[in-house]
Amino acid sequence: xxxxxxxxxxxxxxxxxxxxxxxxxxxxxxxxxxxxxxxxxxxxxxxxxxxxxxxxxxxxxxxxxxxxxxxxxxxxxxxxxxxxxxxxxxxxxxxxxxxxxxxxxxx
Length: 107
Description:
This protein is mostly helical. It contains five helices and three strands. The protein has helices spanning about 1-15, 25-40, 55-60, 80-90, 95-105; strands spanning about 45-50, 65, 70-75. Strands 1-3-2 form a three-stranded mixed beta sheet, with helices on both faces. Strand 2 and strand 3 form a beta hairpin. It starts with a helix and ends with a helix.
């Protein structure tokens, strides 16, 4: 059931015009989507966005999840990266197994 709700939430929040919005509006959409995903999955993940930090963008591939803070930081406006990092929050997996779960879930 949660997967169906997740897909519906993404479809409701991420419309075609999302990609042409300015950064501030994209962040608002991600925050709104995260609120809904937190409700669906009963999590308390928070989101930080730093789209101007090119060094961290290159170091992380665009985002990171810090489990001890229950926080996602995005360095680019990417739905796939957002979902990937949220998956880390869901599975709390580390290492290769956790990474493979996050890849599979986000796709």
